[in-house]
Amino acid sequence: MIVDSHCHLDGPVFDADRDEVLARARNAGVSFMLAIGTGDGPPDLEAAIRIAEDHPDIAATVGVHPHDALKFDDATAARLDALCQHPQVLAVGEIGIDYHYANSPRERQKLAFVRQMEIAAGRRKPISIHTRDAWEDTLDLLSLHWAGTGLGGIMHCFTGSSEQAARCLDMGFMLSFSGVLTFARSGDLRATARWIPIDRLLVETDSPYLTPAPHRKIRRNEPRFVVETARSLAGLRGVSYEEAATVTTANFRRLFAMDERTAGGRANYGSSAT
Ligand SMILES: [Zn+2]
Question: What pLDDT score was predicted for residue 251?
Fold first, then answer.
């Protein structure tokens, strides 16, 4: 059993066969999926909740992606705060900063990021972080507004350096590796993945993006392929696939205070929902 700690299941790319995609994931041993709820941005904040409500093995996040920061306003903040109380919402995300695409002005991205950290802190929810070409500002804002909460979170699709990894670990984050770990050019990232403390490792697909090797010809990624990233991670760490899957699953459950007895079945969300 393994957890896909970051996937986008709501897009039209899955409309024709979403149930088959989920069935294939379960058949591959994926016991739990965290569906990211950023969707097309505000005003709709429930893209992942709609899917999670139909599936006991899927939980949701709520949040405004940095690409949509311009659409973040007071009404968005109030709605996000309310949705954090939904029983299947585990985290706020993906939130952060993206200077690569720069779809929203930098100051607006920072503002939306900080306000969402405040909402998550108020509701005692971990956060899932997106950062691209913006490491310094992301780490600065996290240390100012998040590290002190002790809530931790997930550095989604971690592709940073060893120094950046160390700073994230210091602030209590899990580092989640995606299919990028399997790409030929990712030698530095694989070197980093070798030394991260084993209790801080997660794996994800970021479906429908970033299909891992050896399936890169399949353009649409899906949660079943998280197995390939975990296999790659296992090879780097010199452990079996089963151990990599077990450890990353345990890390995910610990972060969200999920009941250990619900090994892949219905999660007990109660302990983190206050
Ligand atoms: Zn994502």
Answer: 98
